[in-house]
Write a sequence for this structure.
């Protein structure tokens, strides 16, 4: 799938998209903070919970950094698996 750069830039610059991307940053920071509190300060040793929090933060940061190219590459990689 080809993503038109101008269309992507217009979508990325949309105030609603900008608000969503900012929320992703807040959610990622919250997940990271909860991970630190749980593992370091809380003594939680449930690996599944800690991996889930870390995974959430990583995905949210990936969303913040996505570009038209990364979307195209991801969809291309996904289609090659089918």
């Amino acid at each position: 799938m080809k993503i038109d750069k101008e269309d992507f830039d217009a979508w990325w610059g949309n105030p609603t998209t900008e608000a969503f991307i900012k929320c992703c940053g807040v959610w990622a920071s919250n997940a990271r903070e909860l991970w630190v509190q749980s593992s370091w300060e809380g003594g939680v040793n449930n690996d599944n919970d800690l991996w889930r929090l870390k995974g959430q933060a990583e995905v949210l940061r990936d969303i913040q950094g996505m570009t038209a190219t990364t979307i195209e590459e991801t969809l291309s990689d996904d289609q090659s698996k089918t």
